# Entry
Amino acid sequence: MDIEKILQQFDVDINKATNCDELIEIRQNYLGKSGHLSQVMRMMKDIAPSERKSFGEKVNNAKDRVESLLRTKKEELEKLAIENELKNAKIVDLTVPCSENVGSLHPITIVQERIVEIFKSMGFSVEDGDEIETEYNNFESVNVPKNHPARDMQDTFYLDNGELLKTQTSAGQNKIMRKYGAPLRVIFPGRCFRNEELDASHENTFFQVEGMMIDENISISNLIYFMKTMLSNVFGKNVEVRLRPGFFPFVEPGFELDCSCPYCGGHGCNVCKHSGWIELCPCGMIHPKVLEMGGIDTDKYQGFAFGLGLSRLTMMTFDIDDIRKLNSGELKTLKQVKVK
Ligand code: FA5
# Structure
């Protein structure tokens, strides 16, 4: 087969090509395994040894030419395609409000924003936390030393470098105390991770909002006041709170805070399992050891801390029956959230 003739035919084919798919076919016809130039290369064995070198060079030059013209043509066709697309594009008025499929805030974000606004109005600042934490911040600095049994309740996902996905927003306490010192009013929402058996109220990835207030003369009354104000605002009606003893190594005394059921006013319904109360928020007075590790002068300052389960509060606010729906990206559920 004559190389010149092959190249002449190639020029005709490539000039006729109008899109990239055709170029792929042309490449196959000339450079593919059984393409014209590959077939020519196979004729090498029939060529006299003295002419093989120049024959090989000729075929390789032809291949280079084909490659280079294919590349240039591809660029030309791509540019043309973009120009055509722009020419035919409809000019839309970007200022016209979109009426459907606009998306919306995630239910957790909606509740978090409410909580943030309430605490900001009471003089609290808002901090961001890390999701990957050191063992020290997540456990040791909040009075959970290595081998403490409380670690069993918060198994998590460990990284090769020994760091972990934080199990609780309390992991931010030490860093924040060290950063700002006392007096301090701060909340820090965040995503937490635990190696959990999953069910309708347990996820491996969920959200909490932590809060701390450290100042002179802080007592449990302050804790009750702030919790009551926050929950009344979130539910949009006055609620009562009560404290039961609860154990967390980083608070002393520690409590489980219950809120009177906002749906039945405390008379008993399905949401509160007919008890009139909903368990909502572990909290307590910050343990002096935790304050000391955070560099706070315990002779002068005391504080309270709480760790609200934001994902569960969101479920309650929007009547979502299964926590797993919150992370599912299932639009059918997420679109249905209605503010109570
Ligand atoms: C804590 O995480 C403590 N750090 C809270 C705390 C902070 C106590 C400050 C005292 C002072 P607990 O493990 O109970 O505590 O979790 C707090 C809340 O997070 C729970 O009440 C619950 O609402 C939520 N929570 C815990 N585990 C899960 C889970 N697997 N899925 C969804 N929500 C969870």
The chain has two domains: 3-88, 107-334. Residues 49-88 form the longest helix (40 residues). Strands lie at 125-126, 132-133, 164-165, 184-193, 205-215, 241-245, 251-260, 277-286, 302-309.
